[in-house]
Structure formats: C-alpha cells, structure tokens
Fold this sequence. Notes:
The complex is a heterodimer of chains A (269) and B (406).
Chain A: H1 4-14, E1 19-25, H2 31-43, E2 48-52, H3 63-74, H4 79-92, E3 97-101, H5 103-109, H6 111-121, E4 125-128, H7 137-140, E5 149-150, E6 152-154, H8 160-169, E7 174-177, H9 190-201, E8 208-211, H10 217-224, E9 229-232, H11 234-242, H12 249-263
Parallel strand pairs in A: 1-2, 1-9, 2-3, 3-4, 4-5, 6-7, 7-8, 8-9
Helix pairs in contact in A: 2-4, 2-12, 3-11, 4-6, 10-12
Chain B: H1 10-14, E1 22-23, E2 26-27, H2 36-49, H3 53-67, E3 73-75, H4 77-83, E4 87-92, H5 102-115, E5 120-125, H6 129-141, E6 144-150, H7 151-156, H8 158-166, E7 170-174, H9 181-195, E8 199-201, H10 212-220, H11 222-235, E9 241-245, H12 250-256, E10 265-273, H13 284-287, E11 289-293, E12 296-300, H14 325-332, E13 337-342, H15 343-357, H16 363-378, E14 384-389, H17 397-404
Parallel strand pairs in B: 4-14, 5-6, 5-8, 6-7, 9-10, 9-14, 10-13
Antiparallel strand pairs in B: 1-2, 3-4, 11-12
Helix pairs in contact in B: 3-5, 4-15, 5-6, 5-10, 6-8, 10-12, 11-12, 15-16
Amino acid sequence: MTNxxxxxxxxxxxxxxxxxxxxxxxxxxNISGSLNIITAMCKSGLDILELGVPFSDPTADxxxxxxxxxxxxxxxxxxxxxxxxxxxxxxxxxxxxILFSYYNPxxxxxxxxxxxxxxxxxxxxxxxxxxxxxxxxxMTSQWSGNEVALIRLVAPTTPLKRMAQIAQxxxxxxxxxxxxxxxxxDGLDTEDINDKIELLRSTTKLPICVxxxxxxxxxxxAIAAVADGVVIGSAFERLIEDNLDNPDLASILAxxxxxxxxxxxxxxx
Amino acid sequence: xxxxKTVNNKDNQDKFPDSKGHxxxxxxxxxxxxxxxxxxxLDEAYNKIVPDPSFQFEFKxxxxxxxxxxxxxxxxxxxxxxxxxxxxxxxxEDLAHTGxxxxxxxxxxxxxAKRMGKTKLIAETGAGQHGVATATAAxxxxxxxxxxxxTEDIHRxxxxxxxMKLLGAEVVPVTSGTMTLKDAMNEAMRFWVGAVRDxxxxxxxxxxxxxxxVMVREFQKVIGNETREQILKKSGGLPAVLIACVGGGSNxxxxxxxxxxxxxxxxxxxxxxxxxxxxxxxxxxxxxTVGVLHGSxxxxxxxxxxxxxxxxxxxxxxxxPGVGPEHSLLxxxxxxxxxxxxxxxxxxxxxxxxxxxGIIPALESSHAIACAMAEAARRPQNEIxxxxxxxxxxxxxDIVSAYNFK
Lengths: 269, 406
C-alpha cells in the first residue's frame, strides 16, 4: 500500500530535493490562528507537517515549545481538538500530517479510538516521544490496522544494535535526534550527524530525517546535504512567540518556510 | 471490608517488578529515546554492582557510621496514653544524618554512580530533604551536584536551600508550571537528556522510569528490616499496623517492604491539602486515575484529556500529583489501604508530637502521625501501631508559626 508519506519522499527524490518537515504545536496561539498559520505554511512549500499535541508536562522540550504548549492548553486545546484540526487541515492540504504527542493524552483518549479517529481525520503518522519500542505494544496492539505510520526516534546515544531494533518496528521515516538535549538546544555538530546517518543507513531503507536544534537556513542546507529530511520546530515556534500580536503572523511563518524550503534544494551546489 | 493482610505468598511478592520494571499494569519505562540507553545501562549496572559483596559492605558501613543506623524504634508513651488506645511506636528516621530517610537512598545511588564512573549528580527536590541528602552524598564522594527545585518550594523550605548551598551544591530554581516538585522533576529530566553521558540522576522517590522504583525501594528497605527486628525484640510480636505518609512513596515502601508477607495491616497516608472536596489536595491514589508521567505508569491527578493537574499540600514533599508505581499495584491488590489527612489535621498532629514527646516532626511525617492518632484511638490497647517518622520538622518552622499565630 502506498501512502502520503512514501509518496512524498518518492516525489522529492525525483525532484532531487529533501523534505522540509515543520513542527507546530496545534492550537498555538489558538485554534483559528493556528489553522491560518499552518495552512499558509503548507502553501509555501512545507513537505510534511508535524502537529504537536499540547501536554502539561513536556519533559523532552525546551522553553520555546513548553511555552507554545502552555499557550495552546490555555486556549483549551486537547487531543480531541487536535484531531478535529487535523480533519480541517486535511481539507486544505494533501501533505502528510504526523501527530506528535506525549503518551499520556493518547492513553487517556484510548489507543483504539485514537487510531480510528486519527485515520478518519486524515493523519498519516504518529510519533510518541516518550513511548520507546519496549512499551509501545500496548498502544499498537489496540490499533485495528497499520495505515498510520509509527515514526520512531533514534538518538545520539542509541547504539548500533538498538538502532537496528528500532528501525525494524518503524515505518514512514526515522527521526534522528541531532544531539543530546531538549528541543531547541543550540549548536549542531554536522560531522557527528553525518556519522550517525551512515550508521543508521546500514540498518534501514527508510528515509532518515534529522531534527533538534536546527534553526537557520545554513543549518537546513547542511543537514539536507546528508539526510532525507530536515525537521524544524523551535525556530518556527519562536517566530510565533515573538509575533503573537502581529497581524501578519501567518505570512511571517510562510516566508520562513519558503526560505528553509529553498535550502533543501541546494544539494551539491 | 478490611484490607488483605498479605499478598498471598512469597512468590507473588517476588514477581514484581518484571525484568522491564512492570508492577502489574504499572511502572515501565516511558522516556524519550535519548534516555533509554542510559536507563538500560543503569539497569545493568544496578543488577551487577549492587548485589556485589564489596558494594554491600561499603553501603552498610556508610549507613552505620555516617547515617547513624540503625535508627531507634521509640515507644511514644505519652502520646499513646493521651489517646487511650493502641501503643504507638515511632521509627525515628528523623534522627538519620541530614534529618530524614532520604539519605539512605542518596548514598546508595551515589555509591552506584561512583562505581559506574559518573562524576556529576543531579536531583529534583520538593521539601528539600532529598536535595540536601543528595548534596551531602555528593560532598562525601567529591562529586559535582546540581539540585532542581521549584521556586514555590525554595520560598517555603528556605532552610534546606541554604543547607544545599553550604554543602556545595548548585540549586537551580524552576519557574515552569506549578513551580513545585512535579516541575522540578520535569526540569531535572530535561537537564539529564543533555548531560546523560557523565551525569547520574538521583531520583528521590520510588517513582520515575525503571529501575528507579525498584532501586529506591532496595536502598530504603533497611527501614523496614530494622523495624521488624526491633519490634520483635521489644514486644515479642509483630505490629498490627504500619503507617507512613505517601508523596512519591519512598519512606512508605521502605517501611512496608519487609512486612509484605506478614499478617500486618499497612496504611499509606496521602495529603488531603485544603480538603478533598475543595479539589486542592494531593490524594493521588485516593482520587486519581491511571496515566503516564515522569517515566512510569501509575495513578495520577489528571483531567479526562490526560493533562496533569496541580497538587496541593502544606507539606512540600507530598505536594505531587503522581505516586510510585508499586503503590498503585498495592492499592489495586488491596494490600495497602490509602487514606488522606488534610493540612489542619497534620498541623494538629505536629503540635501534639512537639508537646507530648519533645519531637518536632516534618510536616510530611505529621500526616502519618495524624492518621496514627485516629487509628490508636479506635484500636484496642494491646495492638501496636508503628509510624514512620520520616523526617524532622526544623525546615517547617516558618510555615507552622504562620498557621499557629494567625
């Protein structure tokens, strides 16, 4: 079965481009504002959307995404609302939508209902940041199919043998965490990332996308040269935080997508 | 409906947790991938190093010569007579070095960290007792130490902040969320993700991802082992009931574990804060539902959408919306009965213990004392109640005076 994620990577390969993946906390700063921002980003060249489910205790996130999550929660955004947003976005865009969540909201919703509702809404994948392969059977065993990809994380601390185990149960693409630390941490070691990608490629044929701490067009170009996709989260959320009262918020984000997308097309130049 | 007095048999007790840290439905390892290899490494090191005779020898020597163990089991005669009921004995963890049971665990973990080659310790703290105990272990072993503490707790437990600083630790104020223990733990986990290669995270309760709940129980079980031996020697029999306060639940697990196969009742006392009916409480087992927080599955205070709710208690060490996974299992098995005591009841018990026994208890432990007072009054005079007096109350004098003289 082909799906939107596989098709996207295949189409990008034909065009000799890499994927620009944008993380946005759903409902930040509120639901309608968020829908405007995301729709504008999709129209400006975003290849894949990671839609963050707000959580009260985001232990893997730095201050920028913590704040974005807090703003969305303040507006009453919960997993149910995120699934509704996904359905509305699906009417606006055909790019893959990955739901990015901590496990507790999904556990509270019920894994079975979550799968069904995510699929109906038009989600293509799920990434559960605090659900390692050791614990994820309890969620996936309740899924009625495998039409929603389970995106897995590989970290800088993951040894080769474990990479292979993770890759085995992953689908869609592998999310390689660029560095030890929370989201939005400073500093990229591209040489180290290069080594990790090579190791990871020896274990999987899935596309490899790199995220955490990528904040400038130069960073994007450097990662795009070696990976299949680049994930941007805090850099987008920081723009939202800095322009909360700006009526042009959506176009500011769209322009940033345009700038980053250009950087994914410069390979070999 | 009285609680089961034993978990059926020895086998039943020994099967928890399983190799992945599950206590039945609870526990496990729910963390981001960056931390998983560190937890697997820790689990391996824990299983290899801790049972080693040389580790046990050094740990026991420290507990004896540095902590001052065994701590006494004291018959609270005047309190018992005042209540005209069962005999109340106090397990004096308040007399352990640094003033609470927390030191048992931090010495165990710091010793393990040292043998694993880690040079830096981090910890979260609520009341500050775990922070002080971690800073103490770091000083003793010459390690760097950083303690995460919510600004609300920094304010209300100021003496412990000073102690940590004197001991050479850096106290990192946590301003996110509710600015209490939950957020201190969030921040410690965030820091650990970035420093995981050379830093050992000393978790202070039987909470967190596997192997922490089983490891902290292992280092705290000395409380119950001593108590069991002491009461048999003093009274020739077992107590009727054990009582301990439960925030995350380490002093309770430490006391209960040795008695798990005995016909002894156990009561865990949660904080009812301003009253269960006000919603401002920390009665996680009494009022919570099952979810995943801080690396393990357990009962917790949360809304229907899985967002964690704020806890409330006058005792910073109980002011936590989660609880250790083994307590969740013990609740479901009906092996331990979990009750709650509110701020005012705890303060009354605090005052009574001061004037009747000359002991100033921590506000956390005062919750257990309050429960023991009610139990003593309704039980026959030939029964024995043992209360874990988990810490001393010097840190709480400001809070208590504010209440007393208002």
